[in-house]
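Progress narrative, Year 2. Work on Sterol desaturase from Azotobacter chroococcum NCIMB 8003 advanced from sequence curation to structure prediction during this period.
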Amino acid sequence: MSDTLLTHEPLIRGAVFTLVLLSMAVWEVVAGQRPQRYLRRQRWPSNLLIVALDTLAVRLVFPLAAVGTALVAAEHGWGILNMVAIPVWLAVAASVVVLDLAIYFQHRLFHAVPWLWRLHRMHHADLEFDVTTGLRFHPLEILISRGIKLAVVAVLGAPALSVLIFEVVLNATSMFNHGNVRLPVRGDRWLRLLVVTPDMHRVHHSIVRRETDSNFGFNLPWWDRLFGTYRDQPAAGHLGMTIGIEDFRELRDLRLDRMLIQPFLNPHRHREAVSPLRDCCPFR
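Result:
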C-alpha cells in the first residue's frame, strides 16, 4: 500500500489536475458567469507558468512530499492518530476534515499578518476570476504553506491515504471554486452546504476589504459559518463587483516577472492590517 501510494501519487495528482483544469476551462466558455475584460492570453500564460515554478520550488526545498511525511510518521509512530487505536476509515475521514480546518486558519493567517499578506496578495491581485486564479500563488507562499501542511500531517499522524485524498480534493476544489462558471441559484445554495462554490468564493476576491476578509474556505464551507467569516453575496452583486485589490490594477501587473517581485513592492495605497482572527472569530 505504501509503495503504491508513493509510486502513483504524481500520476494520480497530475491526472486529476489536468482533467479538472480542462473541464473547468470548457465550462467557463460554455456557461461563464462574468464577462471578462482581460483576455485569457493576457493572464493565463503567467498564471500557468507560476504553477511550474511553484512545483519546482517545492521539489527542491521539500524532497519528501506530504504523503511521504505521513508514511514516515506511521513508520515511527509519530502523531496523535498513530498513538490511538481507531478504525482506519475514521482516521482517514477525521484527518481530511482536520487538514481542511488547518488550511482555513492558515488562509486567515495570511490575511492577518502583514508580511504574509504581501505574499498572498499576489493571488488576490488577479484582475479576473477564473480557474487559473486558483493556481496563482507566489512560490514563497507555497513553500510556507507546504511547511505548515507537513507539520500538521506529522503532529496529527494522518494516514497517507487521507493526505493523498486531501491534496487531490483540495487542488480540484480550488480550481472549481475559482471558476468563472454559472450555477443555478438554487443549486448553488444547496451545493454550498457541502463544498465552497464559485459564487461563494468569488466574494473573497472582491476589491471591498470587508468582503476580501470573508469566505476563507477552499474546500469545506462549514468553517466560515462556524467562525463568523461567512458572507453570502457581494454587495455589488456578482456581475457588478470589482475583482482584485486596489494596489495592483495595471495590465503589466499580470506579467510573471511583476507577480514574482510583487511582495517586495510598496504600492502607494497600503492595506491596513486588521486581523480577521481578532475581529471575526467568536471563539477568541
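The CA atoms of residues 35 and 249 lie 18 Å apart. Residues 2-30 form the longest helix (29 residues).
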